[in-house]
Design brief:
Layout lengths: L21 E4 L3 H12 L5 E3 L26 H14 L3 E3 L5 E5 L2 E5 L4 E4 L1 E4 L3 E3 L14 E2 L12 E5 L3 H10 L4 E5 L9 H8 L4 E4 L2 E8 L5 E7 L2 E7 L1 E4 L3 E3 L6 H5 L1 H6 L3 E3 L11 H22 L1
Parallel strand pairs: 1-2, 1-7, 2-3, 7-18, 9-16, 10-11, 10-16, 11-12
Antiparallel strand pairs: 4-5, 5-6, 8-17, 13-14, 14-15
Helix pairs in contact: 1-2, 1-7, 3-4
The chain binds flavin-adenine dinucleotide.
The site of flavin-adenine dinucleotide has 37 residues, from helix 1, helix 3 and helix 7.
């Protein structure tokens, strides 16, 4: 495997980046663990992260299934620990969004809005992105409508409506209910969350759960709140909220992969130059422990392949 990860001429030059030419896209639990294990093998990857190191897990109320934390730990705290461990290995961190990854002549070209980078091996650890709501969000209200709750974790005394019926909807509700009133809207009756989350929410007087309640319109209210039009059992009701959160499912985030890569994914994976780890390919099985394990496994395979090349 060749040595240097370079920036192309013709675009903004950032200089030569030290280390092996392994790029990790995303610094959530999967990317973090890959980076740590790669570093332990003497490979210094370059990591691209458009948001905060820690990823989606920062939203989690109580992580009870990640080993080492009897009694559980909040997602934010666990991510704080992940971040410290990640930073201790001083990886090259590019705080930008990857907008395109292409593959030509045995080399990946990775584009951010400001530069182009080259790598021999790419690890895609970009997780998932929320499905698009099917209700129009008025321009003036976009700063009060969310698909993750990190931006409103400090909210207090507010009314927050959450749309969804899965783990995320109930986990968000439990988290936000500490200081707020929360209403969960399920458009049907079917639940797709863990029983333990549902039971905890039902035992919480600050969480109201409504079934057969579909959000049909979002409008600004004179009071400054958001007026939510809700169709419930044949009636149309208006609920006034401070914030609205959509927890309506997530899809893999691979929009940055060029067609050439999508069409040759299996071949590139067989060659050991393209890897997918964590939620981005987790399907229904999206958990931190899985993401972390896959990060380590992939890093070990990359290191083994390098040793084989030498
Ligand atoms: C409310 C909630 C509660 C949860 N509770 C638990 C729990 O109790 N136990 C558990 O095991 N799991 C839990 N999870 C799931 C857990 O958060 C995920 O399984 C885990 O975060 C997956 O890690 P990942 O690294 O694969 O993806 P992510 O955490 O999604 O990280 C992906 C990272 O890639 C970055 N990225 C994406 N695209 C780009 C791009 N183009 N350019 C640059 N950066 C990019 C993102 O900004 C993000 O930081 C919960 C999730 C939610 C939402």
């Amino acid at each position: 495997m060749r040595g240097i990860f370079q920036v192309s001429a013709g675009r903004r030059r950032l200089g030569v980046i030290r280390g092996d030419r392994v790029a990790v896209i995303g610094a959530g639990p999967a990317g973090i663990s890959a980076v740590i294990q790669l570093s332990r093998s003497g490979i210094r990857p370059t990591v691209f992260e458009e948001g905060e190191v820690g990823g989606l897990l920062r939203n989690a109320n109580l992580v009870e299934n990640y080993s080492g934390f009897p009694g559980g730990i909040s997602g934010m705290e666990l991510c704080g620990l992940f971040r410290r461990q990640f930073e201790a290995f001083s990886p090259e961190l590019i705080r930008e969004r990857v907008v395109r990854v292409d593959y030509d002549g045995g080399v990946f070209a990775i584009n951010t809005p400001s530069a182009e980078y080259f790598a021999d091996v790419v690890v895609v650890a970009s997780g998932t992105i929320s499905k698009k709501p099917d209700v129009a969000i008025p321009q003036g209200l976009t700063d009060r409508v969310f698909t993750e709750i990190v931006p409103i974790m400090g909210a207090s005394g507010k009314t927050i409506v959450i749309v969804g019926a899965g783990d995320a909807a109930f986990d968000y509700a439990l988290n936000l209910s500490r200081k707020n009133r929360v209403i969960i809207l399920n458009r049907g009756e079917r639940l797709s969350c863990l029983g333990v989350l549902f039971d905890r929410a039902m035992g919480n007087s600050r969480i109201e759960y409504r079934t057969n309640a579909s959000l049909t319109a979002i409008n600004p209210a004179k009071s400054g709140k958001i007026a939510l039009e809700i169709s419930a059992n044949g009636d149309i009701l208006t609920e006034f909220a401070d914030y609205l959160v959509f927890a309506i499912g997530r899809v893999p985030r691979t929009d940055f992969l060029a067609k050439k890569i999508s069409q040759n994914t299996e071949q590139l994976m067989r060659e050991g130059v393209l890897h997918f780890i964590g939620d981005v390919h987790g399907g229904r099985f999206r958990q931190t422990g899985i993401a972390v394990g896959e990060g380590i496994l992939t890093a070990m395979k990359i290191a083994e392949r390098r040793t084989g090349d030498e």
